[in-house]
Every structure is written in C-alpha cells, then in structure tokens.
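I am still getting used to backbone structure tokens and would like to learn alongside you. To get us started, please write out a protein record for me. Once you have written the record down, we can walk along the chain together.
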Amino acid sequence: MPDGKFDREFLRGALALTGRSEVDRLLLVSDQPLSPNEIRGRPIKKKLVYAVTTEGLANQLRAKKYLAVLIPPYEYTRIEKIKVAVVAAQSAGLLREGDTVLAMCGPGQDRVVDTLVKVVIGSEDPEEKIRVDTLGLPPEFSSQVFEILIHPAM
C-alpha cells in the first residue's frame, strides 16, 4: 500500500499506535488491503476493520478472517469517508459506545492512506456528530430517509 519512505513510516506509526491497549479498532477505509508483511508481528489483526467499496473485496477479506464492512463508492472527502465507515461499522456491530477508533483513509480508493483520525464512539462533542447533509449524497438519495436509517445505527 505505501508508495514512498514517508508513507511507509506513516503507516508503521499508525500500526504501532493501534497496538496500544487504549485503541479498540483500526478502521482502514481503502480498497487496498494491508500486505501480510505490514501486519506480521503486530497484535492488530483482531482490531483491524476494513471499509471497502466492493462486495467481492469484502468477501475476500472475510474469507481471510478479517472484519470488513461495505461502504458506497461515492466521491467523499476524507472525513466524510471516515464518517460513513464509522456508521457502517457501528451498524455491523463492530464498534461500541466508548470505543477508541483510529480511522485511516486517503484521497482515493486506489492510493496510499494519508489521513489518521482518532474517534471516540459516542462522544458528546457536537463536532463529532455526523450530519447527513454534509455527507455529499448524490441527488437520488433523500437525506431524510438516510438520516432515519443512520440515527438508529449511531
């Protein structure tokens, strides 16, 4: 997944943080899974959750005993991708109230990750709440219907 030396160091740093006891999950929003070499020797496989845009890739990851959720393949900002992935992981029962999650993503589905965000599930901070009107849904989606679906998951 990483292209250059800095990218590899960035990923190694995020994986090292994931190994800490206070981190409950690493949510990787990417259609490019980590290589076995990047995970080898690290106690993170049980913490790792992939958020991918194709059912085929999600099934491949699940077959390898990874946790994976499916997210829509729309063009989102990095933070919007993370928000959508958090909702999908919560809906799947992979994130719980009080969990500390490190979420990683990048600018596209096929490029290196360049963003790391710490999210505490259930935070009372209003900035942490997901606003449906900022998700950038295409016009064919009703934000009211989407909001009705998302809020029970949260």
Observations:
- The chain has five helices and five strands.
- The chain has one domain: 5-153.
- The two ends are 31 Å apart (CA to CA).
- Confidence is low (pLDDT under 50) at residues 126-134.
